[in-house]
Amino acid sequence: MEIELGRSIILVHDYDEAFEFYEQILNAQKYVDYTTDDGQRFLHVVFESKTSGIWFLKAAGREQFQLVGNQTQGQPTLVFYTDDIQSFYRRLVEHNVHIKREIVSGNGYHFLHFLDLYGNELVMVELKAQTI
Q1: How many domains does one find in the chain?
Q2: How far is the C-alpha of 106 from the C-alpha of 78, rounded, in Å?
Q3: In a domain, 93, yes or no
Q4: Is residue 18 part of a domain?
Q5: How confident is the model at residue 132 (pLDDT cuts 50, 70, 90)?
Q6: Lower CB count within 10 Å: N or C terminus of the chain?
């Protein structure tokens, strides 16, 4: 039996501004983007591997509105992998993205923490060889 992660959910204030950030910073691509007859929008984005992605959901109501940017209560929300953390770091700097933790290097890995446009903490990791 095969099991795969499909989508993680991120609460947003605005679909388009969320997509713009994730497209510019993380190379996200729209996978599904449609609006139902009753006005509910579904925006799913994927990344280069297209095996998993994010489903943006617009916060509805006071309780959800307060969770935007804080769904994991200060813990990292998502972890991404790259083959070039230095280039990714430069992209963050060029786009004035808040870097919460500078690059940390260890035996076989490098990682950094940064915040998305709402304050969700995201982690970018570069692994050497096949250590995933």
Answers
A1: 1
A2: 20
A3: yes
A4: yes
A5: low
A6: N
Per the DSSP assignment, residues forming a β-bridge with 131 are none
The encoded tokens of residue 100 equal 């919460």
Task: Please tell me whether residue 33 adopts helix, strand or coil conformation.
Answer: strand
> pLDDT (tens digit, 9 = 90+) per residue, 63-105?
999 999 999 999 999 999 999 999 999 999 999 999 999 999 9
Domain limits at 111? Answer: 7-127
What is the model's pLDDT at position 131? 53
- Helical spans, DSSP H, in 10-128: 15-26, 61-67, 85-94
- Please tell me the distance from the alpha carbon of residue 50 to that of residue 54, in angstroms, as a whole number: 11
The Cα–Cα gap between 33 and 6 comes to 16
Q: What is the CATH number of the domain that holds 54?
A: 3.10.180.10
Decide if 45 is inside a domain: yes
Residue 132 CB partners (closer than 8 Å, separation 6+) = 81
Q: Is residue 132 part of a domain?
A: no
Q: Give residue 119's region: left, alpha or beta (phi > 0; psi -120 to 50).
A: left
